[in-house]
């Protein structure tokens, strides 16, 4: 069994593809999608993506409970399943 999170999910999926006989189950959490090109342009595309401006501003919630409720609504997950991930992503804002 193999579990990967985020970039580790991409590595885990590549490992599973390279050695399918060694992996019975593959679980990926917030992983990157599969690489669909030959790899010759991957680095340049990642650099461009990192350099591109984002229009996303941080969402502000009155309290952690409301942030958790918003994530539950957007993902369909139960609070106990994502409470730690939501808490890790919260930052105190002034005002």
TrEMBL record:
Is Hydrolase found in the keyword set?
Answer: yes
The UniProt entry, under Gene3D superfamilies, shows: alpha/beta hydrolase (3.40.50.1820)
Q: Where is the AB hydrolase-1 domain?
A: 1-52
List keywords of the entry alphabetically: Hydrolase
In Gene Ontology terms, what is one molecular function of this protein? hydrolase activity
What Pfam families does the entry give? Abhydrolase_1
Please verify whether the record's keywords include Zinc-finger: no
Q: Which InterPro entries match?
A: AB_hydrolase_1, AB_hydrolase_fold
Entry protein name: Hydrolase, alpha/beta fold protein
Q: Which organism is it from?
A: mine drainage metagenome
């Amino acid at each position: 069994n193999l579990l990967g999170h985020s970039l580790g999910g991409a590595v885990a999926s590549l490992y599973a593809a390279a050695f399918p006989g060694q992996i019975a189950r593959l679980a990926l959490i917030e992983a990157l999608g599969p690489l669909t090109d030959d790899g010759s342009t991957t680095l340049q595309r990642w650099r461009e993506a990192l350099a591109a401006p984002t229009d996303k501003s941080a969402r502000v919630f009155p309290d952690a409970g409301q942030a958790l409720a918003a994530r539950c609504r957007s993902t369909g997950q139960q609070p106990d399943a994502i409470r730690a991930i939501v808490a890790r992503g919260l930052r105190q804002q002034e005002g």
